[in-house]
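quick one: cobalt (II) ion bound model?
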Amino acid sequence: MNPYNVDHVAIAVHDLDEAIERHRSLFGAEPQWRELVAEQGVEEAMIAIGGSYIQLLAPTGQDTPVGKFLERHGEGIHHIAYAVTNIEEALIELKNQGAHLVDETPRTGGRGAKIAFVHPATFAGTLVELVELPHE
Ligand code: CO
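yep, here:
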């Protein structure tokens, strides 16, 4: 499994509007899109930096994965996403190597991408997301 890009670094925040505005004023970067992913209980904004994105994530409620993360850790880096060409193959390879998968099969994330999470116990306490972008 060879990721070809760091697709995004996700930062959990309480207030998405405020985080976008602060990012804009500090770094002059505009979000390229903003999307509610109801299934995951988050609203996200994607800000392009070079060939990768910063993903600002705000929970839709306290009883969501990001809501619980904020309660436990406060705002900060939530996960790192690697772009892969074939997510199903990548998941099989990782599993064969003993990785602890949060998602055994991909689900749909923002941008219509197929995504899956790998448990932080697998590598250095870092939640890793695999992303397969929709093919043109
Ligand atoms: Co993500």
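The two ends are 22 Å apart (CA to CA).
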